[in-house]
Amino acid sequence: MSDDRDQERQADAMERQAAALEAIATELRYQNAALVETIDVIDQLAAHVDDHHVSETEPRNRSGAALQTAIADRLFERDDREDDLMNGLDRSENWSDGDGR
What is the maximal distance between C-alpha atoms in the chain? Predict the structure, then answer.
């Protein structure tokens, strides 16, 4: 009986650890997408202040919601390039809150 309880506790601990690792992986993927978008924006701004570069367009002035959309797009692009080994549970379409946002 003691062995059964020990095994059950060990299984519960492993499930909690797996859930925590999945949460960390999700957060890292989001941060990576945000970093890629930030680098792109910095690169665009640098092109506008470079004395040797004449920009053909104005810099983008985006709202917070537009920036979130751009980050989600980066995340989707990255997910799309991933090989088929990644399961569908952590893909960008599953990042919405329960209320559809």
Answer: 77
One-letter amino acid of 89: L
Burial class (CB in 10 A: 0-12, 13-18, 19+), 67: middle
**Of 16, 38, 37, 21, whose CA–CA distance to 90 is shortest?**
21
- What phi and psi values does residue 90 have, to the nearest 5 degrees? -115, 25
Residue 29: which residues within 8 A CB-CB, separation 6 or more?
A: 75, 78, 90
Q: What is the pLDDT of residues 12-56, one digit of tens each?
A: 999 999 999 999 998 998 898 888 888 888 877 776 776 666 667
Using CA atoms, how far apart are residues 90 and 81, in angstroms rounded to an integer? Answer: 14
Instruction: Report the alpha-carbon distance of residue 59 to residue 62 in Å, rounded.
Output: 9
Tell me the C-alpha to C-alpha distance, in Å, between residue 71 and each of 18, 20, 62: 26, 23, 12
Is this structure's pTM higher than 0.70? Answer: no
